[in-house]
Amino acid sequence: MRSILLDRPPPRSSDPARTLLAVSAERSNWAGNVTYGAARIHAPSSVEELQDLVARTERIRALGSRHSFSDVADTTGELVSVAGLPARIDVDAAARTVTVAAGLRYGDVAEELHRQGWALHNLGSLPHISVAGAVATATHGSGDGNGNLATAVAALHLVRADGELVTLRRGEPDFAGAVVALGALGVVAAVTLDVVPAFDVRQVVYDDLALDTVAERFDEIFAAAYSVSVFTDWAGTTRSWVKHRTGDGEWTPDPAWMGARLADAPRNPVPGMPAVNCTEQRGVPGPWYDRLPHFRLEFTPSSGEELQSEFLVPREHGVEAFGAISTLADRIAPVLQVCELRTAAADDLWLSSSYGRDVVGFHFTWKKDPDGVRPVLAEIERALAPYDARPHWGKLFTVAPEQVRERYPRLADFRRLRGEYDPDGRFGNVFLDRYVG
Q1: Which three-class secondary structure state does DSSP give residue 130?
Q2: Which of 48, 135, 185, 313 is geometrically suited to a Cys-Cys bond with 421, CB 3.0 to 4.6 A?
Q3: What is residue 6's predicted lDDT score, i.e. its pLDDT?
Q4: Residue (of 63, 65, 82) closest to 73 by Cα position
Q5: Looking at the structure, do residues 135 and 218 belong to the same domain, yes or no?
Q6: Host domain of residue 122
Q7: Does 15 fall in a domain?
Q8: Is 150 exposed, middle or buried (CB count within 10 Å of its CB: 0-12, 13-18, 19+)?
């Protein structure tokens, strides 16, 4: 097992707004805005090593691919990365599942799945994120009929506080509370996911989609294909990514869809950025894993020079929420790279941002300007307050903890579950204390 000893950084404020800080890369997240307070980062090479480490460590947290912008993974104890566990990808064709090592990236899992004739129902914008990290925070792709990535979980293989490896399966008591658990119940060693037969996707991009049209034809736009995303910089550039499964019937891209123009060349979701790191567009059919993400696995889409926030609003309030954000366009645009609108289907996972309701996600990729972003973020949160918006656990937000807690009706049940799995708070941290209690 490899362990990296880190000098402890000075204490940080527990105010979530203060996680908007620039820090050194060695002990920070991908974006460099969160400094980890851990003394060591461990990288066990076997599940047995992971079990031993957890059992003998007083405070420990799992660290994924570091793509969270909040301090959800932080700890004053020790961090453990499961990226070094054996790269397990075991397909059970009869059960239509695949069991994968928790630290694998979705892109690596997807390519092997496709080689064997299978697919996942959904993928996020980035194929670079780890399976366990994305599941634990209810990270998602898009599509009216598509649940977030955590909804594909059929079983979790989890190392508890005493070092025991346990398996929780769909349908068992408390399973729905354990899937999106923010690392509070233990360290996930492997995940079993539902799979479907492999499929192809064609994606096209449309330029100059009018914001008024988005508001007027909101439901029609997002129901137009298997996956639809609308990107805007709130300063005049608005584009839509429309992804259609080739097996869902005949489909010919409309050159003037919703009044927008079919793009005449590949586009990057961020205005002004090159499209070389984006998945192939212009209606060229290709495998699901190389079309559902916006970005290609072999390219890093940016160097971390950004901050991100996202708010998930009940679908019935989507148009009103869109209008509320529109009133802040002049405030948002100067500190924004791009804003993405996307949808996800309801689920029954207790701490999922889609628990009990279909949602619209308003995702903001900010410039790396903490002082400029912070007040604008607070204005957005105030504008969305009437619409019961849930912030993404892995993104930046400043919503008061009591307001976050009241938006999760099964939170008391989750607290009970946490007490059963981790009675001594071995997996706890400031983030969990603040928002879960």
Answers
A1: strand
A2: 185
A3: 52
A4: 63
A5: no
A6: 89-198
A7: no
A8: buried
